[in-house]
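Dissemination and training. As part of the outreach component of the grant, students in the summer workshop were shown how a complex can be specified as a set of sequence lines and then modelled as a single object. The example used during the hands-on session is reproduced here so that future cohorts can follow it. Participants entered these lines:
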Amino acid sequence: MQQSIPLVDRPADAVLFRLPGRAITAAEFAADARQLADTLPGAPYAANLCTGRYAFAVGFAAALLRGQVSLLTNDRSPDRLRDLLARFPGAIALADGADTGPLPGVTVPPPGNERARIPGIPADRLAALVFTSGSTGAPLVHAKRWGALAERNRDGGVAFGMDAAQPATIVGTVPPQHMYGFETTVLLPMHAACSAWCGPAFYPADIRAALAAVPEDRLLVTTPLQLRALLSDATELPALARIISATAPLDNAMAEAAERQWSTIVSEIFGATEVGSIASRRTTDGAEWTPYAQIRLRARDGELLVEAPGADDHALDDFVELLPDGRFRLLGRRSDVVKMGGRRASLAGLNRELAAVDGVEDGVFVPPDADDHRAAARMTAFVVAPGAAAPAILAALRGRIDPVFLPRRIVHVDRLPRNELGKLPASALQALREAP
Amino acid sequence: MNIETATHPAEIAMQSPFEQELAMLIVTALHLEISPAEIEPVAPLFGDGLGLDSIDALELALAISREFGLELKSDDDRNRAIFANLRALADHVETHRTK
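and obtained this result:
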């Protein structure tokens, strides 16, 4: 018989999600999901475009119950939606107000007051497809099976010491369509002793209000960028049990400052869209990461493979040193991947798009320092393009690359400092960047 | 080396004195390589206009809070309208500033 894993592995009256002025229990969530599932039109795929976290969670669960695969995309531009429909014919869109473009839209209704029994879902059911930027421009697709997502929830609950005797409340600042936000703020409450805040939590004022609105133990799930904003705002916050950061490395000084200012613990999650969260560490304890309980790391042909229950093996983008006690250290990126605002792109792919712009004879993207968390730390493009002005180049790139990677500066040069092999050595790029 | 700005071409419209002040703050806070006068009062700040995104919104909210004592919140129903362009943002900040 096929293994089944419950949608929610919590008591029926446990609070899973918190909207302003309203707490939603496991039984109520199950009822909302069931009701929406019954009204969904038949479709193989459902793009979940909801901006509200609870609407997103209900949309995801309803699609799961109906056997519709959720497509998770942050990019709601008409181009992207058209592209989704072309790649996933018959897809519908679940939304809570956003324009669904060419996709037939279904509006996720506000929470009701019914209760329902919690259903089980086959472990091998395809639950969601998530996307990463490929080096050729077309996004790569990664499949998430229900069993793999549920097992990772259990690991996450253990890693962060979640205890049914004192359930935690998560205030997350990361969108639910991002793998990190999906895992920590939508999925985790289904299988670990915590609830997730579903009201606004983007600006420092939102975060402060959200934390004040929820019970202890409070966990803030965020990014280095937003942590920096909170710190620079010198914000007073309600008692915080823990801050969890991911999407980019957090420097030790910022972690120390946050721990001091709010008398809390700052942890980081290490993961990737392809495999989800796989390890954690307390930043101020040192550089060593502790893998989640069910994660195995294995070296093969110079690559480090991540083995996780229910998921395909995944080779990490990073060089990793495995330690005898099972922990690991990161030694730097293996590939040409650049990360920004929680998104990834291949530098080679970006450079190819730049070279394809009319009038650009040669060009290269230069990323900012990886530990620069200022909003101003963006891409610079150096171009040899006597006939193409910066606004024209920018207009051509828009729509072809993720907007977060659009160059903030486009610098015209007479030639790029290519070596005799036609390559651009890192030192030459550094010199370009530092030129006045 | 000829540095050009990667933003909207300059089509200069009249900025009010407060819009000038706010434009200066935007350029400084986000390290934009344009002159404040180049920000069109009614051109979109986000997306196709000036090309700002949510990362910039966060930085800009901080700068506005520091400078004018006004905190932006995303549960404000008018949030999208407030950030629509320089003129709308200036109106909102001027009305609600506490310093």
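Confidence is low (pLDDT under 50) at residues 1-11 of chain B. Students were then asked to discuss how this feature might be tested experimentally.
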